[in-house]
Write a structure and sequence with these properties.
Keywords: Signal. This protein is mainly beta. It has a domain of about 150 residues. About 0% of the residues lie in helices and about 55% in strands. Strands 6-5-4-3-7-8-9-10 form an 8-stranded mixed β-sheet, with no helix packed on it. The protein has a 7-stranded antiparallel β-sheet with strand order 16-17-18-19-20-21-22, with no helix packed on it. A hairpin with a 5-residue loop joins strand 16 and strand 17.
């Protein structure tokens, strides 16, 4: 049984007026899924960074949220964790931190933020134990080497020249015409290597890639093959076994950069290929160990992996990332964990730790109402399990499965499926527990209910605006139709009796809009009393919706958030009772305690919420699981 942090908060003093109380908090050791990201997009080099201790016994990993974790390299044991702060005066708003190795006995970092439209960059060091920071003045570091820093050996780019500094000796070499260099590295003996591409496209910097080797006298060009590579992202490092690098590849389908990962490769000092990995493996970035026997890379933007340098093979992951979490009952949740190396497991969390039910690496989970069965999916494959983890049934969807759910009577289940290369709205597919496929009407709503709900839409609203309505179908016949509204955002209750609806209030004409929340009886279509909720912000991009619905459809956790083409924000939560149409008193820690802003390279976890059958509320904040009890 794997250990995890579990904090009981049953004695926590809260106001008697509060409608909920925090009862427990659990943390799975590791970085949150996707928390490494990258500075400008979801592709290319990971943001944050890695640093090995001088003796190679410890590894420090920093993600985009500023969480700094210390690991025992030989075992993968988590030794320490803390939130690394930027130096005072960094500027307002989001701050991106990059870990650039060591400066004497202190971690060397760079902070990047914006003060208005002005970019603010600061190099600083931090005590590896306390996190106390000290600014480095007159010293700017980057992948291409360091300038004006207290180092005796450096290499950097200057225009079309590579400049090597060995003590007081300086040497330069001109990069051949038509080649553009993206990263350079200095060998222990003073030799130089550089990653370059030939005649890169002026917009994407993509082209055939080369490794340039310079011994101080001659420059040797080694072709990396006919594959098109990108100079937008890449890392290069010298090791005792040769030149280790990661480089992004051109995506022939989209014309951009491959988003699944980078090519990672090792070449000998003389330029002979030893091994390489496909972007499909999902690795990004390379950080070799001091002894030159292993290196660390980040898989899927989530998992730091220790890999063997001689052949690139996986050795161990550092921690685990929670991919999915489904509440079973108060303090107990079913988790999908990514363990690194393409491996994972399904585990049951509780006060005594994590109990492994299956060694499957899965993407999504669902639990039935009486906690006797659960579903898991990987790609197109859906599995039905009992609670020992045994697979009882397997079905194949026609596309990638994005979400799973049981029906209220526990006799069938449904999936939201993305078909082929269509990354638009998923379609709903359903099966019986015996594995038989169910025929559904077109535009059936996920998750499946009985009767089946469909959504129709047109542009016949006021001034030819968009509008929608719902229809309930049983045995091919329509039972009821709803009124036309601007939108219908649906959350069916787990018991199958209710549809919780969030929809723009008809009288709300300007952004941010007021929202109506109410329940529809699945059988009759009769609506409950409407709860109209006004926004708490003037942000025109903000919106409100249902983040979680209790099993009977009585309680709803309302989320208020924002988003645009780049970033997103979570303003807070409000508890509500849809049976009476009123907002409930919400503790400040629940209402505002999860507020955050992300995106644009700042990959802070998006908080996911769900109710267990006993009305306990689970909020998954990356690898942290917070339990709230709703009366």
């Amino acid at each position: 049984m794997r250990k995890l942090t579990f904090i009981l908060l049953g004695m926590l003093s809260l106001s008697v007026a509060s409608a909920a109380r925090l009862t427990a908090s659990q943390t799975v050791p590791g970085h949150s899924a996707g928390s490494f990201g990258s500075p400008g997009s979801e592709v290319g080099d990971p943001s944050g960074g890695v640093a090995w201790s001088a003796d190679g016994q410890r590894v420090y990993t920093l993600d985009t949220t500023g969480r700094l974790l210390t690991w025992e390299a030989q075992t993968g044991k988590l030794l320490a964790q803390r939130q690394q702060q930027a130096p005072v005066g960094q500027g307002k708003g989001l701050v991106l931190l990059t870990l650039n190795g060591w400066q004497s006995d202190r971690l060397r970092l760079q902070a990047r933020s914006f003060n208005g439209e002005k970019e603010v960059n600061q190099d600083f060091t931090a005590d590896p134990v306390t996190g106390k920071t000290t600014l480095l003045k007159g010293c700017s570091a980057g992948q291409t080497g360091a300038k004006d820093c207290p180092q005796t050996k450096t290499v950097r780019l200057s225009g079309d020249k590579i400049v090597r500094q060995l003590g007081t000796e300086k040497a330069t070499v001109t990069v051949p015409a038509g080649l553009k260099v993206g990263a350079v590295a200095l060998g222990q003996d003073g030799s130089v290597a550089a990653l370059a591409v030939k005649q890169p496209d002026k917009y994407t910097y993509d082209g055939p890639a080369y490794l340039l080797l310079w011994d101080g006298e001659t420059l040797k060009s080694v072709s990396l093959g006919t594959r098109l590579m990108s100079l937008q992202e890449g890392q290069l490092a010298w090791t005792a076994q040769g030149w280790l690098f990661s480089m992004s590849m051109h995506d022939m389908q989209t014309g951009g950069i491959r988003s699944d990962g980078q090519m990672v490769a090792l070449y000998t000092v003389s330029g002979k290929r030893v091994w390489d990995t496909s972007p499909q493996v999902g690795l990004r970035g390379v950080w070799p160990s001091p002894d030159g026997q292993t290196f660390l890379s980040i898989r899927d933007g989530s998992l730091p992996e220790v890999r063997r340098l001689s052949d690139g093979a996986f050795v161990r992951g550092l921690g685990e990332a929670v991919v999915a979490a489904v509440p079973v009952r108060q303090g107990q949740a079913l988790l999908a964990l990514n363990s690194g190396g393409g491996k994972g497991r399904i585990a049951l969390s509780g006060p005594s730790g994590l109990k492994t039910l299956s060694d499957l690496n899965v993407d999504s989970l669902a639990v039935n109402n009486d906690a006797t069965r659960f579903l898991s999916s990987t790609g197109n494959t859906i599995r039905l399990h009992d609670f020992s983890g045994k697979v009882l049934q397997t079905v194949q969807a026609k596309g990638e499965v994005r979400a799973l759910a049981f029906t209220g009577d526990n006799q069938s289940f449904s999936a939201a499926v993305v078909l082929g290369q269509d990354y638009g709205s998923p379609v709903t597919a359903a099966w019986t527990l015996a594995g038989g496929s169910l025929k559904l009407p077109k535009d059936g709503v996920f998750p499946l209910t009985s009767p089946v709900i469909t959504r129709s839409q047109d542009q016949n609203g006021p001034q030819q605006s968009h509008r929608e309505r719902l229809t309930a179908w049983q045995n091919g016949k329509s039972l009821w139709q709803s009124a036309w509204r601007v939108t219908y955002r649906l959350s069916p209750s787990a018991d199958g009796r209710w549809l919780a609806v969030s929809s723009q209030s008809p009288n709300s004409k300007s952004d941010p809009v007021q929202m109506d929340f109410f329940r529809l009886n699945v059988i009759t279509g009769k609506p409950s009393k409407t709860l109209t909720v006004a926004p708490t912000t003037k942000d025109p991009n903000s919106a409100q919706g249902i983040a979680a619905l209790s099993r009977t459809g009585q309680y709803a956790l309302i989320l208020e958030g924002t988003g645009d083409a780049c970033g997103w924000g979570l303003y807070g939560f409000r508890l509500s009772d849809l049976s009476t149409g009123r907002v409930l008193p919400t503790p400040k820690a629940l209402g505002q305690g999860y507020q955050r802003f992300g995106g644009c390279g700042y990959n802070v976890p998006f908080v996911k919420a769900s109710f267990a059958p006993d009305n306990s509320l689970l909020l998954q904040d990356g690898n942290r699981l917070d339990w709230w009890q709703v009366p």
